[in-house]
Design a protein that fits this description.
- This protein is mostly helical.
- It has two helices and no strands.
- Helix 1 runs antiparallel to helix 2.
- The longest helix has about 55 residues.
- The mean pLDDT is about 85.
């Protein structure tokens, strides 16, 4: 009977250790997922505005007479410079805003 009590006590201790290990592992896994989601959110905040602008300005907006329909494209050689300046500015703002 005494041997059974000792074995039961040992099993209880081992069960508690296993639960603590499982809880620690779960906390570690949750922290890793949170870090990953944070990095993905920051990357999204940084690149989403530039992706949107590239999608909009990547379309060929041309009127029926062949003239460009977007005012920036009427600037000639400076239209794309204006676009990339705007996109770069948005990336910088997204980067600063992600860490605030």
């Amino acid at each position: 009977a005494d041997c059974l009590e000792q074995a039961s006590d040992r099993m209880a201790v081992l069960d508690e250790l296993a639960r603590e290990y499982a809880d620690g592992h779960e906390r570690h896994r949750d922290a890793a997922v949170n870090r990953t989601l944070f990095c993905l959110t920051v990357a999204t905040c940084i690149f989403m505005p530039a992706q949107f602008l590239a999608g909009v300005y990547g379309m060929n907006f041309v009127r029926d007479d062949g003239s460009p329909g977007i005012p920036e494209l009427r600037l000639g050689d400076h239209g794309y410079l204006l676009f990339w300046s705007l996109a770069g500015g948005l990336v910088v703002l997204g980067t600063c805003g992600a860490y605030v």
